[in-house]
Amino acid sequence: MSDTKIIKLSLIFFMIYLVNSSPPEDPIKCSYNKNFNCTITNTYGAFPDRTICKAAEAVFPTTEEEVISIVANATRENRKMKIATRFSHSIPKLVCLDNGDQDGLLISTKFLNKIIRIDQENMMITVESGVTLRQLISEAGKAGLVLPYTPYWWGLTIGGLIGTGAHGSSLWGLGSSVHDYIVQLRIVTPADAANNYAKVRILENGSPDLNAVRVSLGVLGVVSQVTLKLERVFKRSITFSERDDSNLGEDAVTFGRQHEFADFTWYPSQRKVIYRIDDRVPNGTPGNALNDFLGFRSTPSLVLTIFRTLEEIQESTNDAGGKCTTAIINTSILKYLSYGWRNNGTGYPMVGFQNQGQASGTYLDSLEGATCSWDHRVEGIGYPMVGFQNQVQASGTCLDSLGGATCPWDHRVKGLFFHQTTFTISLSKVKGFIEDVQRLVDLEPKALCVLDLYNGILMRYVTTSNAYLGKQEDSLDFDITYYRSKDPMSPRLFEDFLEEIEQLAFFKYGALPHWGKNRNVAFIGAINKYKNVDKFMQVKQSYDHLGLFSSEWTDQVLGLKDGLSIVKEGCALEGLCICSKDIHCAPNKGYFCRPGRIYKDARVCTNPSLSTIDIQTRKTICTSM
């Protein structure tokens, strides 16, 4: 059967099951009286070390006054606290209390979800910290206002995304990090008895303390309200241009200065890159584009089970060729469906106001003149796509799921289960990193097909931030998602390549980790890369000198305690350590601790039997891609 027929059959299969679905569950579960004897996980169902995080109690305040009371009572009792969000998307253990803590308290912002005010004249919006990005985009858009840059996934809460430094892609203006658009913030912190054990601190733009709270990892207190600077609604024009990756190293340095919302999606095993050419256009430009990214749509549990089972079989049989074939099919489907974007069916460039280009998810609610991207009644999609900003900036319609489908990573079904390695490398160093990855691909073309299965490497631009734990230089962010076994002692096919890329980034090129993603290895020594960390620590000591909002894990990340590396049998397989002995890998399964292939300081888990393939096989693989 030809690749074209396979793609068409896969499309039909995908569309048939794109029906009713299930919304994500609450990450907090309590077994006694709905609020006691609780556990918390993330939306993926597993933290890097796979521990189950527990709390004695969970509370769900609905107002700032209730937050003040909760923090005051906990401080009076010297009780540890952690902040949880509606969907809990952070991979590291930011929400976890210490193991063995029998009295810990979870404070959920689930019901701190109100829009406080919208100031149209001064172009500002004030929201409670539990408001989702989707809510903010929608409500601001009704007032003709937009956030200029945001993450691409709209299921994040405002408190969560600023706490971890989440961002979109731009080197223009103040850059793509939402926390750099804060003009005022209210945070509830512990206090002494003279201040009734809790204090509301109101921080204005220009306050040195605000630079600590902009990216706080949740260790300073409970952010209750945030005021953000907006802009008047505007339109964008987007073209996805597929090119080979021969010039990617050089282009990565300059492309972000040429286009305001530029990014890349890199398929290294196929030696292909999707360049996103994305700029503002006049509001009168025709177009009504919509971003409903396929990876954020509801997917039937049956489809998820089939794809996960197939990948597990390929992993267990070392079927690298099968993974590469599946990867080509997946990326071809994405390209055929324009990655979930759709035009207005007229062939015009895709143009839209910023508030409608920021987010998406209404293709099933289409009115006259717009429809689903695959609707046979309209013409095909043409580039450039032009759309309102609130319709193209972010998406996430799987959050609306009902019935038999869900978000692809929902841990309640047998679906995607993955690691994420996400980091930023300064623009002055990024060319060398990209070329090192290309050298690894040249050594073994099949090794990185696993990345193409997860839609490649997303590369987004970020600027220098005033936040003490924000970006230190203008940089390029690399977001890498890849297979994770349900068995923590099971090695991954060609896992040494991804371990070497991880260590190349963090230790050779000095990359900064994304605070809301990554395995433990990414945070080793990371805090020493932030020039203003001492200022952050001073604010931390001032706001919470008892460390009530800290945990063993956050203390380790901030360099206050040892233990970030968990050295034990098989620890390198999950990124809990860098191997120094064979036992840290899986010697009984043929994986041993060895130096990297091009970065000799790296120590990676290698299967020597997979380390070479004959030249003819390499030629065949490269030709097929």
Automatic annotation (TrEMBL):
<dbReference type="Pfam" id="PF01565">
    <property type="entry name" value="FAD_binding_4"/>
</dbReference>
<dbReference type="InterPro" id="IPR050432">
    <property type="entry name" value="FAD-linked_Oxidoreductases_BP"/>
</dbReference>
<keyword id="KW-0732">Signal</keyword>
<dbReference type="GO" id="GO:0019853">
    <property type="term" value="P:L-ascorbic acid biosynthetic process"/>
</dbReference>
<keyword id="KW-0560">Oxidoreductase</keyword>
<dbReference type="Pfam" id="PF04030">
    <property type="entry name" value="ALO"/>
</dbReference>
<dbReference type="InterPro" id="IPR016169">
    <property type="entry name" value="FAD-bd_PCMH_sub2"/>
</dbReference>
<dbReference type="GO" id="GO:0050105">
    <property type="term" value="F:L-gulonolactone oxidase activity"/>
</dbReference>
<dbReference type="InterPro" id="IPR016166">
    <property type="entry name" value="FAD-bd_PCMH"/>
</dbReference>
<dbReference type="Pfam" id="PF22906">
    <property type="entry name" value="GULLO2-like_3rd"/>
</dbReference>
<dbReference type="InterPro" id="IPR036318">
    <property type="entry name" value="FAD-bd_PCMH-like_sf"/>
</dbReference>
<keyword id="KW-0060">Ascorbate biosynthesis</keyword>
<protein>
    <recommendedName>
        <fullName>L-gulonolactone oxidase</fullName>
        <ecNumber>1.1.3.8</ecNumber>
    </recommendedName>
</protein>
<comment type="pathway">
    <text>Cofactor biosynthesis; L-ascorbate biosynthesis.</text>
</comment>
<dbReference type="GO" id="GO:0071949">
    <property type="term" value="F:FAD binding"/>
</dbReference>
<dbReference type="GO" id="GO:0003885">
    <property type="term" value="F:D-arabinono-1,4-lactone oxidase activity"/>
</dbReference>
<dbReference type="GO" id="GO:0016020">
    <property type="term" value="C:membrane"/>
</dbReference>
<dbReference type="InterPro" id="IPR007173">
    <property type="entry name" value="ALO_C"/>
</dbReference>
<feature type="signal peptide">
    <location>
        <begin position="1"/>
        <end position="21"/>
    </location>
</feature>
<dbReference type="InterPro" id="IPR055154">
    <property type="entry name" value="GULLO2-like_C"/>
</dbReference>
<dbReference type="InterPro" id="IPR010030">
    <property type="entry name" value="GULO_Plant"/>
</dbReference>
<feature type="domain" description="FAD-binding PCMH-type">
    <location>
        <begin position="51"/>
        <end position="233"/>
    </location>
</feature>
<comment type="similarity">
    <text>Belongs to the oxygen-dependent FAD-linked oxidoreductase family.</text>
</comment>
<dbReference type="InterPro" id="IPR006094">
    <property type="entry name" value="Oxid_FAD_bind_N"/>
</dbReference>
